[in-house]
Design goal:
The chain is an alpha+beta fold. It is 55% helix and 17% strand. A hairpin with a 6-residue loop joins strand 4 and strand 5.
Amino acid sequence: LTMFFVGKLVSARIENAAVQSAAEAGAQYMDTFLEPYVQAMSDDNTLSPESVQALDRFTQRRAMQQHIVSIKIWRADGTVVYSTNKAITNHKFPPDEIVEALKGKVVTDLEGLTQDENEYERKLEMPLYEIYAPLRDSNSMKVIAVGEFYEKASSLKREINRVRQQVWAVVGAATLAMLTLLFFIVRRGDKIIQRQQ
């Protein structure tokens, strides 16, 4: 039982570390591209038509579409000011998901897509992980918006499964070795007791 819980704990830690690492790398990449377009939001809290057009062109790039399937930009009040799914642009949703990102943290979820704003992503029927990244004013470094993007998770899930199998193989081998050792210790003790009797 102890080894089972150790295996579960190690697997969960490795999965969390892998997802967080991928999320932070993705967030830095997206920050580079999204932050220039949201700078106007520090003044009037909206995206300019030019920024929307530039973002549309950016999301249509083939290199981008190989990894990223959807992008959203959130205002602090929970309004989606930009989305590749135009049906939810300028719609307000509960801001629960973006609260941590507004504090400056990169937040990720590998199992989500249950909220109302995820209808488009659910229809894609592919494994995705969502990443929320704070977008800052270039002068004050204050968080002025949250960038959310959905990345294809197939390769990440394969990597997590591969590492999980390795963890369980090591834990299984260690458990088997300990049980074998315990068996021989108990067997030897039993023989000594029988001799003494």
